[in-house]
Design goal:
The complex is a heterodimer of chains A (319) and B (457). Chain A has 319 residues and is an all-alpha fold. Chain A is 79% helix and 1% strand. A two-stranded antiparallel sheet of chain A has the order 1-2. The chains are: A mainly alpha (319), B alpha/beta (457). Chains A and B meet through helix 2, helix 10 and helix 11 of A and helix 1, helix 3, helix 12 and helix 18 of B.
């Protein structure tokens, strides 16, 4: 290798002396050699990103302009914007967007309020009991959603279930349009609250205790310290949790909806993700599902941009 | 910013270059299928058999594994790999089509697949199941239906046909039955040996059970999206209506007969004699002994028998009708289809189908799982199922129904599931959530009409 380079170098140098044109080619080549390494280093990452993320995204877009049932032997028919037209004219889409908003609002207490309260309270518990409390709160997260759903189904059973016996009601929680969504939200909340507590606890651990100590020296009560020192410093964590809730709530509910209500009764628990899945994998309408996916993608980009902007503005950073 | 442009441009170029590949092909799927020649005795072939029965633990898997072993012994040159559909639904039967689709898109479909009758249109026209009449000859297919000793029941022979050609061999099969809890009947002062024959009688019996025992009266498992539309079609047919016109171009489920069916079911819920339950809740409640009657597929009978045990006894009656009209049951169940591309595999697939629908296989399937034998003569054959039939009191109403059975009509076009779901959601909305039946069905039919190929938009 090394000798090869040596042998190659002299003719290049000679060519350089010979005229103007080869000289410019030589500088072009050396420029390329100078500029290439950063791109070469980036190349593996970019290729993977393109193959696994951007290419499917582009394919989704292409697919959204076709009518196709996912079977390779049937040709894809280009249909222009017909899928988008059909999608925007179905009342199902609007209803499922609204249900998604309800799920997000319903999840916020479980991902923000309760975790903050629990994390602040468990902080006061000392010693081994603290670990036990945290483990208890985190435990539901470790239960597989489908297994948890089976137990909840049993608890919510209209004739033999514990919930109805305790409340003295005879509501069929999962099969009444008014209560099914509530049941899904509470079960999902029960499931993810432990994770949110973990995030808040990590956020609290990252706050320098000197601030609280200083405030106490100045005569601040425990409540005042929490309100004016801890919570503002926790705001980046809370903003992160809100962002997660907005973007992921509908996905968290998916396994529960699939096992407990299948989007019913009468579509009352069909949110965006469930609708998307029904179009693509139950109705085998790849074009329509892709069009819905593209619309949601665009929608969530806007939502995420707004939220990150807001989070930047509202958060206090301990720099 | 300017520096990153080349990188961005190349990323975009790479994306565009790769985005076109990997999606649908433009090759034509149709065309005549040539005859698959007989296998040489020494020719080794391996095939894949996909059936949702392998996803159901216990009797189902065990029986099918046993049958496959017997087949391999009989055909030493054919080896069979059995698999369940890909996916993780609680009920593996709901994964069949999506599983097949993903394997077709990967280019390696199973050679034999067991698929439901409701998917027939899609299976033949979109998934490209092979016509058995072309593959092995019409005579061979008909000879298999005639059997060695016992022929298929006449209404069962044509259930897997499409435009005069046989694509699927009907395999397992069930009809809607009215199951009774005889203990609740006795407690309510009713005679379970004289079960209700009409829906009016069902309603009266349910009211009596509810008032005298405090348990729930009756549940009709044909009225929700999860139940699919098979026995709803039976109810509508019994009332003299249809859900789809004869030429498959027009939906007819918003017409008077269907509306009347939905209205009478809604009244049962309003009066409180039919509880508001999901399919799963109702099946559980009946198995527990908390429900007097349930109209249910005979495929669930095993679950009920297990639940009955010591505490109560299971009774069964044919599907009730409306007034004096004869009830028209429809069948649920599945047929066996061939998807292999290779000729040797196609022939081996046919051999497997022939074995699985033979007298011998049906004897095993009926005794071990309880499915109805489609070769009905077997139940009188002392060498076949005569013993088993004598011990099985639930068989008679089921066989009685086979006489006037009508096929479960599959919805048309590639969006057939959205049509079916739309219909059943409208039914559910009216019956259990109190919406107006006529209005609910009309708006569902209006939405679904655009999905019917060749339907008026």
């Amino acid at each position: 290798m090394v000798s090869g380079t040596f042998v190659e170098a002299p003719p290049l140098a000679l060519a350089g002396e010979a005229g103007v044109r080869p000289a410019s080619r030589e500088t072009g080549r050396s420029r390329a050699r100078r500029l290439a390494p950063p791109y070469l280093y980036l190349l593996p990452a970019v290729v993977l990103l393109v193959v696994w993320t951007y290419q499917p995204l582009a394919q989704t877009f292409v697919l959204s302009l076709h009518s196709w049932n996912l079977v390779p032997s049937t040709p894809m028919e280009p249909v222009g914007l017909a899928n988008y037209e059909q999608l925007l004219s179905t009342p199902e889409l609007g209803r499922s967007v609204w249900r998604t908003v309800v799920v997000i609002l319903g999840m916020l207490p479980f991902t923000v309020l309760i975790p903050v309260a629990v994390a602040l309270l468990t902080r006061r518990v000392r010693g081994r009991a603290q670990g036990v409390y945290r483990a208890l709160v985190f435990a539901p997260m470790l239960v597989a959603p489908v297994a948890g759903a089976a137990v909840w189904q049993w608890l919510l059973d209209p004739s033999a279930g514990a919930v109805n016996r305790i409340l003295g009601t005879d509501v069929n929680w999962l099969n009444t349009t008014g209560t099914a969504q509530l049941a899904i939200i509470v079960i999902t909340g029960w499931h993810v609250a432990g994770f949110a507590v973990l995030v808040v606890t990590a956020g609290l651990a990252g706050i320098n205790p000197d601030y609280a100590a200083a405030a106490k020296v100045d005569g601040a009560s425990r409540g005042q310290v929490t309100r004016w020192v801890t919570l503002p410093l926790l705001s980046p964590t809370l903003a992160f949790l809100v962002l997660m809730t907005v973007l992921l709530s509908a996905q968290w509910t998916f396994p529960l909806i699939d096992t407990l209500t299948q989007g019913g009764p009468v579509g009352s628990t069909t949110n965006l993700y469930y609708l998307l899945w029904e179009y693509g994998f139950r109705s085998h309408d790849a074009g329509l599902a892709a069009a819905a996916g593209v619309l949601f993608f665009a929608g969530f980009i806007v939502v995420a941009a707004v939220l990150t902007r807001l989070a930047e503005r509202l958060s206090h950073h301990d720099d | 910013m300017r520096r990153s442009l080349p990188a961005l441009a190349s990323a975009v170029a790479l994306t565009l270059a790769t985005s076109a590949c990997g999606l649908g092909s433009t090759g034509d799927g149709g065309g005549a299928v040539s005859r698959a020649p007989e296998l040489d005795p020494g020719q080794q072939v391996s095939i894949v058999f996909e059936s949702y029965n392998f996803g159901q633990a216990g009797a189902w898997t065990d029986t099918f594994t046993e049958l496959i072993a017997a087949f391999e012994q009989e055909h030493p040159n054919i080896s069979v790999t059995a698999q369940k559909p890909q996916g993780n639904s609680a009920n593996p039967a709901t994964d069949t089509i999506s599983s097949l689709q993903s394997q077709l898109s990967a280019g390696s479909p199973p050679d034999v697949a067991q698929l439901g009758f409701s998917d027939l249109d899609f299976t033949v026209n979109e998934l490209g199941a092979l016509p058995l009449d072309d593959l092995v000859g019409k005579d061979t297919v008909q000879a298999n239906f005639d059997g060695e000793r016992h022929a298929y029941a006449p209404p069962a022979r044509t259930l897997g046909d499409w435009e005069g050609k046989t694509y699927g061999v009907p395999f397992v099969f069930s009809t809607p039955m009215l199951y009774l809890n005889t203990k609740l009947f006795a407690d309510a002062g009713l005679d379970a040996r004289r079960p209700p024959r009409t829906w009016e009688e069902v309603r009266d019996a349910a009211r009596a059970i509810q008032q005298r025992t405090g348990k729930d009266g009756a549940y009709v498992d044909c009225l929700t999206k999860a139940a699919k539309d098979w026995c709803f079609q039976a109810l509508v047919r019994s009332q003299g209506g249809t859900v789809l016109s004869e030429d498959r171009s027009r939906l007819t489920f918003a017409e008077q007969p269907a509306v009347e069916v939905v209205r009478s079911m809604q009244e049962m819920v309003r009066e409180g004699v039919m509880p508001n339950r999901t399919q799963m809740q109702a099946v559980d409640a009946f198995a527990r002994g908390d429900l007097g009657m349930i109209l249910e597929s005979s495929a669930i009978q095993g679950t009920f028998l297990k639940g009955a045990g010591q505490d109560w006894e299971l009774g069964a009656a044919p599907m009730p009708g409306f007034g004096d009209a004869t009830p028209v049951p429809t069948n649920s169940g599945a047929a066996l289809f061939v998807f292999s591309q290779d000729q040797a595999k196609q022939r081996a697939a046919w051999e497997l189908i022939r074995f699985l629908t033979s007298e011998r296989a049906y004897t095993t399937i009926a005794t071990k799982i309880g499915y109805l034998p489609l070769r009905t003569g077997l139940v009188e054959d002392p060498e076949g199922l005569a013993d088993w039939a004598a011990r099985n009191p639930y068989l008679e109403p089921n066989l009685e129904q086979l006489e006037h059975l009508e096929p479960w009509v599959s919805m048309p076009g590639p969006s057939y599931l959205r049509i079916r779901d739309g219909l059943m959601q409208a039914v559910e909305n009216a019956v259990f959530q109190g919406a107006d039946p006529a209005e609910s069905l009309r708006s569902a039919q209006r939405d679904a009409t655009a999905l019917v190929p060749g339907g008026d938009k």
